[in-house]
Structure formats: C-alpha cells, structure tokens
Automatic annotation (TrEMBL):
<dbReference type="InterPro" id="IPR022036">
    <property type="entry name" value="DUF3605"/>
</dbReference>
<dbReference type="Pfam" id="PF12239">
    <property type="entry name" value="DUF3605"/>
</dbReference>
<dbReference type="GO" id="GO:0005737">
    <property type="term" value="C:cytoplasm"/>
</dbReference>
<protein>
    <recommendedName>
        <fullName>N-acetylglucosamine-induced protein 1</fullName>
    </recommendedName>
</protein>
<dbReference type="GO" id="GO:0006044">
    <property type="term" value="P:N-acetylglucosamine metabolic process"/>
</dbReference>
Length: 222
C-alpha cells in the first residue's frame, strides 16, 4: 500500500470539501503546543472526567487543561477576528462581555459584588465532560500573585475561596464544584482579573441566575 503523508495540522478536523489551499492567517503564528493539539483528530481526544478535573485542580496542574482540537481551532479563529475588530481581546472582554464603563472597583476585594464582580460562562471551555459547567468570575480588583511562582498568594487564595464558598457552597454539593486561578504564564487575558469555577451537573436555573442569562461565545460563533 502507498504510504500516506500526514495531513498538515491546519487541515485536520476540516471536511475535505472545506480545505483551504494554504494555512489560514489565524493559524500561522501558533506555539508548537497549539499546533500539536489542532493537528490531533477530535476522534483521538478524550474529554476529562469530573474526577480528573478535580484532581488536576487539587495538585495545581491546570496547565494540563486543553480544548478539544477543533474547538481550539475555532477559538484561534475567533480571537484573531477580535483583534482585528476591537484592537485587542481585552477591549472585547471589557466592552462587550463585561460591559463595564469603568474598571475602578467600588470597594475592597469581594465587598461590592454587583458593581465589581461578574460571573459569565467561559466562552471557550476546555475539553471536559459535557455535564461540567465552566464559569469565569471577572473582577475589577486585583488578586495578588506571588512574584516568583506566579501562583496566588495565600491571602488572595483565601479571599477567592471565601467568595466561592459563599456563592456556591450552599447551592452545590461540596464535591460538585471546584475553582482555580491560572498561573500568570497561562493567562490568555492579563489585563482583567479573573478566576475559574467549575460545577458538575448543576441546576440550570442556578447557572441562569448566577450568569444573569449569559450565553457563551462558542454558542454564537459559527
């Protein structure tokens, strides 16, 4: 049998009748890691279970979270378009997703929830069990990181944990929620403070209430 050359990464997971003649602009300046992920067939990707998600969070290996290959491709296409239309991803987040007129916090961290905090869906969630709801908590105030490690300081970790316990603790079983804050080196949006909360099979009305009816961009982007 003739030897088949592997497909270029930018053609993987794309129907043959939609193959571009050359690598699209939004895929030309990717890291080796992203090229490797996008070049993996979706059929070979295994979504993380809730147990695996909790384990990676518990040992602070959030760098092991990845998007499904075809979803990472869509994400890169989306962010490429955002930079062209809005100048930066941050501009889009602040003006369109958060709709904050001012980035100055009204109070101390977690003191003024209505004014300084917004809970939205993660627009492009990781490759995780479909029963897991991935939320992002955006804040106008800073949450301090350790300058050497890039991890949350003990104080900011305690502040975040207290908020998560107050917000989700009485509404979701303890074993069905977890939070993490990306290391500084892993953040895709640096200018606006945020951390992540994952809920396993939560009540839909609760999520609707927390996000005020938010719809993630992945559901809107073709």
């Amino acid at each position: 049998m003739p030897h088949e050359e592997p497909l270029p990464f930018w053609l993987v997971n794309v129907p043959r009748d939609q193959w571009p003649t050359e690598c699209p602009d939004f895929l030309k300046e990717l890291s080796d890691k992203d090229r490797r992920i996008i070049g993996t067939p979706d059929s070979q990707y295994e979504k993380l279970t809730w147990e695996e998600v909790r384990h990676w969070i518990s040992i602070n290996r959030v760098d092991l979270f990845h998007r499904v290959p075809s979803e990472l491709r869509r994400y890169r296409q989306f962010t490429h378009r955002l930079v062209k239309e809005y100048g930066s991803i941050t501009n889009f987040i602040v003006n369109e997703r958060l709709q904050w007129q001012s980035m100055s916090p009204k109070g101390q961290p977690f003191e003024c929830q209505e004014e300084d905090i917004k809970i939205l869906y993660n627009d492009w969630p990781y490759g995780i069990d479909d029963k897991i709801v991935h939320l992002v908590v955006w804040t106008k105030f800073e949450l301090e990181d350790d300058a050497e490690t890039g991890y949350s300081t003990p104080e900011s970790h305690q502040q975040i944990d207290g908020f998560v316990q107050r917000t989700f603790g009485g509404k979701v079983k303890p074993e069905n929620y977890a939070w993490f804050k990306n290391w500084r080196s892993l953040k895709s949006v640096h200018a606006v403070e945020h951390f992540h909360v994952m809920l396993y099979d939560p009540d839909k009305e609760l999520v609707e209430e927390l996000t005020k009816g938010d719809v993630p961009m992945t559901a809107k982007f073709p």
